[in-house]
Amino acid sequence: MTDPSPEGADRGPRSQLTDIGRSLASHLGRIGRELPGHLARIGRGLSAQLTHIGRGLRSGVVGANRSLRSYLAGIDRDLRPYLTGFALALILTAIPFALVAINPLPKLPTLIIIGVAAAIQVLVHLHYFLHLDLTSTPRENLVAIAFTAILIFLMVGGSFWIMFDLHHRMSI
Amino acid sequence: MTTDAFVVAAPNGDEPAAPDVYEQRAFGFWLYLMSDAIIFSLLFATYAVMARNNAGGPTGNTLFSLPNAFGETLILLFSSITFGLATLAMKSGEKERMLSWLLVTFLLGLGFVGMEIREFHGMVQVGAGPDRSGFLSAFFTLVGTHGLHVSFGLIWILIMTSQVIIKGLTVPVTSRFLRLGLFWHFLDIIWIGIFSIVYLPGIL
Question: Can you give the pTM of this predicted structure?
Answer without folding.
Answer: 0.75
